[in-house]
Design goal:
The chain is about 80% helix and about 0% strand. It has 9 helices and no strands.
Amino acid sequence: MAYDRYIAICKPLHYGTLLGSRACGHMAAAAWGTGFLNSLLHSANTFSVPLCHGNIVDQFFCELPQIIKLSCSDSDYLREAGHIVFSACLAVGCFVFIVLSYVQILRAVLRNPSEQGRQKAFSTCLPHLSVVSLFISTVTSAYLKPHSISSPSLDLVLAILYSAVPPAVNPLIYSIRNQELKSAVWRLM
């Protein structure tokens, strides 16, 4: 979405050629492929972990750090740490791409003399940026918090925040620009 916004705002006359069906297919294939590879690595590691601290996970889904806590050996921590480093590299790469796209968008928008054009560009970009920021901040706090402040209830709250809240608020954030929805919300209030 960041690339789509970048092309739409910074190179609008080239939108059809730069973001055609072939480019969208390549981007979708890259996203699905890296997601599949990442989940395959974590799943293979999860199924190979011998559990010796019971088999009850204090989450509403089987999250990897919670499963590793039930593990018998320290080598499982090291192997999972390697997978987390791989995942972190993927996430940092995506985050850098998003940040660079939005820096270019911001530069283009600030050069625009029209106040209405700036407002339209910001209203197009801010919903995406807010959902991405919400997801990244909650995932980062869930996975990078020190073990000293780790508790089952905090882990559960953070897991709900990054797995349920961004998908739930995503339609609301993107729909808020719809005039019919705005008027319905105002009538409801």
